């Protein structure tokens, strides 16, 4: 993005599941997205830093540094930044209620939209019975997911040599497993029911790496996706309308690491 390119202006931006500290994290794309936007509020909806992975092995490059720098710059410039830790960055839950460099740490939040609706903002792992009740199984699933992502990198390297664009093998595999599809549906219903129980109009969450925006049992359910596979963000416009921004699709030709990245398209 050059210095004269107009930024996209949103009322609110929701990001989750960056998984900084892993090789699968598309920190370069996160940084590109953050440089292209301005917003009044930024919600970081969990699993921003992957503490599970960093405890096992350290991976952190210049793109990861750039993401942190850009978030801090947004906070200094007046963006209201709220960080809601997830299960992979649960170490930050010990600091809930504190503020660092303009970034507020909270267990959850209630966001009021421009048109007056109230939305529960929560990572969502509390409603994932595997993570909540069987951490060993969750970590085993995390290992399998890492293996799928590694296969995904090799698969797309081959596609690149053949001249084909990026395609997420790991997302496709998840969609083929009936149990995974059913689990996603149960998760969405559980979050929607929790929002309705609290008398709220909807919910914004992350956790399951499945971007979605739909009505579930009369409640607006929105999942902002992730920045490992899909590279999606949820944004609120000035009039209160929501949109899922698919950064990978918009920048399909540059999705392979190392290629020149095009300027973002006008919103």
From TrEMBL:
List the signal peptide residues: none
Has UniProt tagged this entry with the keyword Lipid metabolism? no
Write one Pfam family the protein is assigned to: Metallophos
Q: One GO cellular component term, please give it.
A: membrane
Q: Does Repeat appear among the keywords? A: no
Q: Which UniProt keywords apply?
A: Cell inner membrane, Cell membrane, Manganese, Membrane, Metal-binding
GO terms under biological process: lipid A biosynthetic process
State the Gene Ontology terms under molecular function: metal ion binding; UDP-2,3-diacylglucosamine hydrolase activity
Positions of the Calcineurin-like phosphoesterase domain: 11-210
Q: Which PANTHER family match?
A: BLL8164 PROTEIN, UDP-2,3-DIACYLGLUCOSAMINE HYDROLASE-RELATED
Protein's UniProt name:
UDP-2,3-diacylglucosamine diphosphatase
Q: What is the originating organism of this protein?
A: Falsiroseomonas algicola
């Amino acid at each position: 993005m050059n210095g004269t390119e107009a930024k996209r202006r949103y009322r609110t931006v929701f990001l989750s599941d960056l998984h900084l500290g892993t090789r699968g994290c598309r920190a370069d794309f996160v940084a590109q997205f953050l440089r292209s936007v301005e917003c009044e509020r930024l919600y970081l909806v969990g699993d921003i830093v992957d503490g599970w992975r960093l405890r096992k092995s350290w991976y952190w490059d210049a793109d990861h540094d750039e993401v942190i720098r850009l978030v801090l710059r947004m906070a200094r410039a007046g963006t209201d930044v709220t960080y809601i830790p997830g299960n992979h960055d649960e170490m930050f839950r010990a600091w809930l209620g504190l503020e660092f460099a303009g970034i507020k740490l909270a267990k959850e939040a209630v966001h009021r939209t421009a048109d007056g609706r109230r939305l529960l903002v929560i990572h969502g792992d509390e409603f994932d019975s595997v993570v909540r009740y069987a951490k060993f199984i969750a970590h085993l699933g995390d290992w399998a997911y890492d293996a799928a992502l590694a296969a995904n990198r090799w698969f797309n390297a081959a596609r690149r040599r053949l001249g084909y664009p990026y395609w997420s093998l790991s997302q496709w595999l998840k969609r083929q497993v009936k149990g995974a599809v059913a689990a996603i549906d149960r998760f969405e219903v559980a979050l929607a029911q929790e929002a309705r129980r609290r008398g709220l109009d909807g919910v914004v969450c992350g956790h399951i790496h499945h971007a979605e925006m739909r009505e579930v049992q009369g409640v607006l359910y929105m999942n902002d996706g992730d920045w490992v596979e899909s590279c999606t963000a949820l944004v609120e416009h000035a009039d209160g309308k929501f949109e899922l921004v698919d950064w990978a699709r918009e920048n399909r030709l540059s999705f392979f690491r190392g290629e020149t990245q095009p300027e973002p398209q006008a919103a």
